Amino acid sequence: MSARAVPQERSTWQSLLSALPWVLIGLALAAFTGYLLIYSHYAWQLFHFPFDYDQGEGFELVDTLMFSRGEWPYRNIDSYPFYSSNYPPLFHIMAVPLVWLFGPQYWTGRLISYLGTLVTAGAIGFAVQREGKRWWLSLLSGLAFLASNYVYHVGPLFRQHMTMVMFETLAVVLMTVTIDLEEKDGRKRPWHIAAVMLLLLAAGYTKQLAYATVAAVFIFFFLRQTWRAVKWAIPFAVVTALIFVWIDFSTDGSWLLNTVTANINPFVPGQAQGLYRQWFHLHIVLATVAAVYAVYQLYFERLSLVSIWFVVAVINSVTAGKWGAGESYFATAIAASCILTGLAFNRLLNWAELRGWAWRAGALAVIGLLFLFQANRFFHMPTHTPALAALAELLGRPSSVAIAPQTSCSAPRDAEDIPYVDDAGVSLLGRPPTAEDSEAGRRIAALIAEGETAAFGEDAGFNLYLGRDVITNPTQFLNLYNNDAVDLTEMLEMLDRQAFDTVVLRAQFYPPPVLEMIGQRYQTDELVQMNGFVYCVMRPREISE
Amino acid sequence: MVTKRQLGLMLIALAVLAVAGSFVYDFLGGGQFSGIGPAQRLALLGAGLVALVGASLLPLGDRPA
């Protein structure tokens, strides 16, 4: 072997070792791009499904419809049609132009929510890119958000939650950029701060839960520029309060009752504990790296806004334990953890690059493996084609899962094979709706159409499909009933005299006296299964004198 | 600008306030349990943790938080 051949051989070896981690990074990019395709397929299927997929969707569409007519959805729920909304207005107002153009279609709000999650992923990627300038890491950080089981489940639904997360993320990223620029050149940027305040206001008037992000932004502002933070907090609080008072005044107090009183629900400790465990298990890499980086910042450098946001959001996720809340309450913490993970890995790579190619290759390999490990934890995919079923089996999962349809008003049914596999566990969210589900929805609507009145039901979709009144918002009714803030007299009287030709139950969310009256005056006529739920279509009972 | 030490003091004060608040709530007749209930125990544990984190920041002095 010649003297020159040795370094040449080492150089080839070095090149090979340096290239290997990129194979892992490439695999991680492929896995997360696959999740994006799965997410978009699910969204596309939902856009074509004309009924409620998640129980509350129809009521958000009703809110949008009311706003499109210039009406408030915050009403006295004691009298016919017994309807009121419990959510702030912004998301519904955003969907109004689409409803003006295309009518009360479910895809309108679903599209806005889906696009909102893409904007959030883009903002996460931007936040990582501006610090690290590594496109692949920024891309992985953004895609990791969309790949989360929780984001996947609720992202393309006609629900306001993910739009709130979008506004929150935009506010945090803009605030971070603004303070960073101000500290670099010493020039104040009040218009940027005003834009942050507007985004926070938008988040709060999309969903109340955004208060945690508002708190995080002001804690950060207070730590960096104490008196300036106080000066901005006062007008922010005044504007927020003025809007609140204006809506409450315009709705004769129904706003306060329906968005505040009705949201004081019982706390279920076991539910909160279970969701924390599941969130950590499913997001183990993102959550651990983000937590370690936040602790590092606390002791060894300055706390960033994203670190504070992550800690506050994780603490606030305890509200997922409220009755009616759920996994989506972790979405803010997930967005924050995606940014922190990207920033932490950028920092690790910068450190490794200073120590030579071997360290750099090692760091890249670790990052690639961690993203692949996280991708495996997120596992969820439809398996309705032979190729997808084979892919699931190749990845060590079953090709289908046996789940019994949910019954509440009918006898239990045997489990059925569902062509959708999700490591989050048995869930009715995430399974793309099928043509059979649409047909089942149309069957229920046809049964309602046999009568002349609107149906008294737990889903808004069937009455909307027929162009009839939407009667009741059952979960809202139950919330108000539990807070002793509703008068059931008129509703019970109408049910007693069988004023509705049809009653449609899905989960029996109504308060006990209402369910009792339905049981006395109506009987099940037909059972229809849609989206894994068995709906009871009920007709008036013959009453013996 | 707040320093690490000031942040530590704020966290300790927050923890003390939380503990005092939970006992005042009891004194005013809130809560379902006599003595320290499960939620209050959890709150006390959380407050203790926050106070510990606060105390650990005190030696870091005037470095910006």
Name the poorly predicted regions of chain B: none
Into which percent range does the helicity of residues of chain B fall? 55-70%
- Total helices of chain B: the number is 2
Mean pLDDT of chain A: 95
Q: Helix-strand pattern of chain B, N to C?
A: HH
Rg of chain B from C-alpha positions?
14 Å
Q: Class by helix and strand content of chain B? A: mainly alpha
Query: What is the share of helical residues of chain A?
Result: 55-70%
Briefly characterize the structure.
The complex is a heterodimer of chains A (545) and B (65). Helix content of chain A is 63%, strand content 6%.
What's the layout of helices and strands?
The complex is a heterodimer of chains A (545) and B (65).
Chain A: H1 5-47, H2 57-68, H3 90-102, H4 106-132, H5 135-147, H6 149-154, H7 161-185, H8 190-204, H9 211-224, H10 226-250, H11 254-259, H12 269-282, H13 284-300, H14 305-316, H15 331-353, H16 357-377, E1 380-382, H17 386-394, E2 401-403, E3 416-418, E4 420-422, H18 435-449, E5 456-457, H19 461-466, H20 474-482, H21 489-496, E6 503-505, H22 512-521, E7 522-530, E8 533-540
Parallel strand pairs in A: 5-6
Antiparallel strand pairs in A: 1-4, 2-3, 6-8, 7-8
Chain B: H1 4-27, H2 38-57
Give structural notes.
The complex is a heterodimer of chains A (545) and B (65). Chain A has 545 residues and is of the alpha+beta class. In chain A, 63% of the residues lie in helices and 6% in strands. Chain A has helices at residues 5-47, 57-68, 90-102, 106-132, 135-147, 149-154, 161-185, 190-204, 211-224, 226-250, 254-259, 269-282, 284-300, 305-316, 331-353, 357-377, 386-394, 435-449, 461-466, 474-482, 489-496, 512-521; strands at residues 380-382, 401-403, 416-418, 420-422, 456-457, 503-505, 522-530, 533-540. The longest helix of chain A is centred in the N-terminal third of the chain and has 43 residues, at 5-47. Residues 1-6 of chain A have low confidence and may be disordered. With 65 residues, chain B is mainly alpha-helical. Chain B has one domain. The longest helix of chain B is centred in the N-terminal third of the chain and has 24 residues, at 4-27. The model of chain B has no long low-confidence stretch (mean pLDDT 87). The interface between A and B is small, with 10 and 10 residues.
